[in-house]
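Support case: user asked for a sample of complex input and structure output to validate their parser. Sending the pair below.
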Amino acid sequence: MNQINPPPRLLMGPGPSTADPRVLRAMSAQLVGQYDPAMTDLMNETMELYREVFSTRNEQTFLVDGTSRAGIEAALVSLLEPGDRMLVPVLGRFGHLLVEIAERCGAEVHTITVPWGEVFRPEQVEEAVLAVRPKLLAVVQGDTSTTMCQPLADLGEICRRHDVLLYCDATASLGGNPYPADAWGIDVTTAGLQKCLGGPSGSAPITLSPRAVAVIEARRHVEAGIRDAGDQPRGRRIQSNYFDLAMVMDYWGPRRLNHHTEATTMLYGARECARLLVAEGIDNAVERHRLHGAAMLAGVQGLGLGVFGDLAHKMNNVVAVEIPDGVDGEGLRAALLADFGIEIGTSFGPLHGRVWRIGTMGYNARRDAVLTTLAALEQVLRACGAAVTAGGGVGAAREVYAG
Amino acid sequence: MNQINPPPRLLMGPGPSTADPRVLRAMSAQLVGQYDPAMTDLMNETMELYREVFSTRNEQTFLVDGTSRAGIEAALVSLLEPGDRMLVPVLGRFGHLLVEIAERCGAEVHTITVPWGEVFRPEQVEEAVLAVRPKLLAVVQGDTSTTMCQPLADLGEICRRHDVLLYCDATASLGGNPYPADAWGIDVTTAGLQKCLGGPSGSAPITLSPRAVAVIEARRHVEAGIRDAGDQPRGRRIQSNYFDLAMVMDYWGPRRLNHHTEATTMLYGARECARLLVAEGIDNAVERHRLHGAAMLAGVQGLGLGVFGDLAHKMNNVVAVEIPDGVDGEGLRAALLADFGIEIGTSFGPLHGRVWRIGTMGYNARRDAVLTTLAALEQVLRACGAAVTAGGGVGAAREVYAG
C-alpha cells in the first residue's frame, strides 16, 4: 500500500470541515514525554486558551481524548448516576443522542420535542423542568440535523432557580455562534474541533463550572496503584474509567495523577485551533461565520432554491437546502464531489432525501469557498435538469459581501 | 501565545516514544469527508493492515478513537455484562487497570498475582480458570510497569477448552514482541500507537475473533434515528454508547451506520504506523526490537548497573534499571532531559524510586538512539557521583551489534 495521499476536497457539508493548514502543521510537531515540563506547559496553555473559546473562568477546562461524542459521554456519565432524572429538549438528531447516552448511564430520561426546523421558547423548557424536576437539563445548541440554533440565554437562569444542572453540546456551534458559557450560566459544555474550530475530529474540549465539579468530585474514586491515603473513595463510582472526569481532572491538574496517556498530536491540534480563534477574537470569528453563512444562504436562494427551517434561528454555519423536485439528491452530491471536489451533506431522519446541508465553517468560512461552491452548485444543478438562475447564486452572495 | 514548538527530545522511556517522522507527515494530510469514497477506502485499508500487524484473519479489526485505555474499555464493556465473572492474572500495574475497568462494567473480577518481575506459568492460569469459571480471561502481554512479557502461547488453548473468552492488552508489546493472535487463539486484542508502532497516543487498534463478535452482536442495540426495521434490539444494552463495539462495527462495516465522526488525522497516523510495520515485515520489526533491546540491556549492565526482573521474560522493548545507591533517581532523569534532551522513565508502585525504565521501541529501536542514550547516561551517572565503567555502556552495546 502507498503513502497516504487523499484527494483534494473542499468540505462544505455539516462537518467535518476542511482543517486549517496551520492546525495540520502544528500536528506534525514531534512528540514530547507525557510529564515533560514542555508537555505540562502545553496542557496548561490549552486549558487557558479554551477558557477564552468558551468565554468562561472555569478552572476545569480541558480536553477529553476522543471525538465529540466522547466528550458528551464523559460529561453525562460523570454527572448522572443510575436513577437520576435528565430532561432533554430534543430539536433534532443530536438531542436523541443525548437521550441514548444518558439511558446507557442508567438515567431516567424525559424529553420534550418541537417539529424539526424549530427551537424551544424558554417557557416551554421551564414548564418541563417544573414537571420533571430533573437533576440535569441537557441541550444541543446547534443541531446540524435541522440547522437550528437553540437560544440558551435564559436557560441558565431557569436552571439555577430550580437547582438543575445545565449541560450543553456545542460541538457544531462553538466558534461560529455566540457562546458565552459563564454569562449564560451553563454548567458543562462539550465540543469538538471538526466544525467551526478548523481542526480534525478526535479531541473534545470540555468546560465544567464549580458546581458541576462538586457533583463529580463527590464521586471521586482514584484507581488502585496511584491513590494515596488522602484519596478515600466517595459516593457511587462513575461507571466508566476512561470517561471518569474526576480522574481526568487529576491528570490535568497540579497532581498530574496518571490516567490515560494524553493524545499529544491531537492536543497540539486542539491548542492550535484555539490559539488561532483567540488570536482572531471570538467575536470576530462569530461575525465571520455570520457573514459567510449569510452569503451562502443568499446564494442558494439566489439560485432559486428553497431553504428549510426557521431562518430566525438558523446556525450561522450551516443551511438546509431543499432538493428541487425531479433532482436526484445523492446523484448531485456525487457529481459535485467527482467534478469539483466539493462535498456537501446529505441529511437524516425526516429530512432524508428532502434537503442537502451546506456548511460554511471553520477554515471554510471564507469568501472563495462560498463563491466556488455556489458556482459549482449552479453547474451541477443545471446538469441535473434543475431550473436555476444563471449567475444568481454567486451574484446574490457578492451582494451580501458588498454590504 | 506562540505557535507550537516543542523542544527536541529523544524519548527513551516506557512510552510514548518518539514518533516516526513519516507517521507525522501522514498526519499532516488534509481531511476528506466522513463518507467520502476515499475515506472509506482508507478505513478498509487500515483494517487490512492491522490484520497483518495482529497476524489475524479476523474481519473485525479496526480502530477505537481514543487512547489505548479507550480500546481496553471498549473491549471490556462490550464483552462483559453486570455480574459476569472475569479473571485477571495480574503481573503489574496494567493488570490492576483491567480489574478497575471491568469492575466499573459491573463484572465480578477475580485475580491471581505473581511478585512484580515474574510471569505466570500456564498451569497457574488454568488452575485459576477452573476455580473461577470466568466468562473472560483478561491479561496484559507486556506490562511496562515491570517490563515482563507474559507468555501467551498456551492460554488460548486453555480458554477454548474451558469455553472462556481470552482478551489481551498488547499496547506496550505489539510490534516489538511476537504476537500471532490467531495462532495463539486470542479472541480480542487491543493496542495503541505510542509504543512499538511509532505513532502518537490517541488511536487504539482492536481485533475481535468471530466468537467475540458473536457475544457482542448478541447485545446489539442500534441507536434511535439510524436504526431500521431489521435492527431489533437484542440482549442487554452495552452500558456505553461511545464504546459500543456493535455500533462501531456497523460504522466500519459495509452498512457504514453513523456513530462517531472518525478521527481522520489519527486514522491517517494509525494507517501509516501499520503500513511501515507491514512493509518492514512484522518478524523483522520484532527482531529489530530484540536486537536493540539486547544492546540496551548489555549497555546498562556494561555501565555496572543492575537490572530488575526475570530476564528470560523481559519484553524486548523496555528494561528496568536499578538506581544505584546514593543516586537521586529523579535528579538524574532531570539532568538527562535538561542536558541531553533524553527522556527515560520513572516507575510505579513497589518499584517507585528503585528503578528507571528505559525503552527502545518504535522509531527509537535504533542503534544511534541506543548508543546516544548510553553515552549520555554514563555522563550523568558520573556527574551524580555513581561509580561507572568508562565506555562500558557503549562498548557492551557495540559488542551486541557486532554479533
